[in-house]
Design goal:
With 125 residues, the chain is an alpha/beta fold. Helix content is 44%, strand content 18%. The protein has one domain: 3-Layer(aba) Sandwich (Rossmann fold), CATH 3.40.50.
Length: 125
């Protein structure tokens, strides 16, 4: 069974709970949550394989966190998450090393399942 170490980095407890439930429903249980980017960066030594990263957070924003974490571990798979339907944010996240983009309003069991299947294929390579 594919059960990667997953970080959820988001300061919205409601979204964290939804995403955690969606992932758990798909059989993933190795999940750690952080409510800010600094804590995520401080814990990269735990070697997450997948990070769900929010754009808007207090302190360091998601794009800055993404750039920093990719410098520390270019192999970590990052799914950039945002509530804003802004194509420029998606493009910037992909340029900074994000592997995928998740619009929070479109997150559901099907989208999470497809996303995790894509990640499983990426990690298998």
């Amino acid at each position: 069974m594919f059960n990667p170490k997953i970080f959820i980095v988001d300061d919205d407890p409601f979204w964290v709970a939804i995403l955690e439930e969606l992932l758990t429903d798909q059989g993933f249980d190795n999940i750690t949550t952080y409510d800010n980017g600094s804590d995520c960066l401080d814990n990269l030594h735990k070697e997450p394989e997948i990070i769900f990263l929010d754009k808007e957070m207090d302190g360091i924003d998601g794009l800055e966190v993404l750039e920093s974490l990719k410098k520390q571990n270019e192999n970590v798979e990052v799914i950039f998450c945002t509530a804003h339907e802004d194509l420029s944010v998606a493009v910037q996240a992909l340029r900074n090393g994000s592997n995928d983009f998740l619009l929070k309003s479109n997150a559901n069991k099907k989208s999470i399942s497809e996303l995790m299947e894509n990640l499983q294929r990426m990690l298998a390579r």
